[in-house]
Amino acid sequence: MAEIIPGSGPVLLLGDHASNAVPADIDLGVDPALMDKHIAVDIGSAAVARSLAARLGAPAILANVSRLVIDLNREPDHVGLIPHRSDGHLIPGNDTVDRFARIARFHAPYHRLIRDRIRAQRPRLILSVHSFTPCLEHGGTDRPWQVGVLYNRDTRAALPTVDFFRARGFVTGDNEPYSGRLLNATLNRHGEGQGIPSVAIEIRNDLIREEAGAEEWAGVLAELVGQLL
To answer: Which letter, b or e, does each residue of 25-47 get, where b requires 16 or more Cβ atoms within 10 Å of its Cβ?
Structure first.
């Protein structure tokens, strides 16, 4: 279901796209090389989240299944929940999948873990760690941002986060490279839906692909969390 990092701090860290793992009994029908691309995993996000959790003593819940199996940051009825195509690449193994079985196996347990964690220890802040590719392979344009801040209606954490990054000279996307008003399912449910301040951080993946970059950004996010709290 997920990698669970224990902690007792006031922040809950999430990683919806932290893994490129595919269970042995699932055949996506794709070239294995695709599993190291952004369509399968948020490159570098797991390393950032683990380092940040260690710095903060914070609990973290990190997905351990690729979003090509199921996208845990989508509503169960979302058209892209089990993708048939991603950035121009066909995912033929998903064409005849039992949608409800895959939701029951992966999506529902992941979100129950988050729900139960919040019930057991309500956080003051939920921070979701993601990454994005500098440019999509098919029909994409260059994405100049170093980091993006995604949010829906609750701006309590998001707007100060935008200010934090810009004050430090980072090229910062405000609901870019895509909008949290459209793609924010996990935080809509567990953050905004529960009245808990939350924000999704999207780091450009070339900045965190290597360990040194991931550690550097974990330090930046640790400072951010201190400011937000």
So the answer is: ebebebeeebbebbbbbbbbbbb
For 96, the domain range is 2-228
pLDDT at 137 over 90: no
Q: What is the enclosing helix (H) or strand (E) of 162? A: helix 158-167
pTM (2 decimals)? 0.96
Written as six digits, the tokens of 200 are 């999704």
Proportion of the chain in helix, strand, coil states, percent, rounded to 5: 35, 15, 45
User: How would you class 202 by CB atoms within 10 Å of its CB: exposed for 0-12, middle for 13-18, buried for 19 or more?
Assistant: buried
- Domain CATH code at residue 52: 3.40.630.40
pLDDT-derived band at 79, boundaries 50, 70, 90? very high
49 CB-side CA count, 13 A? 33
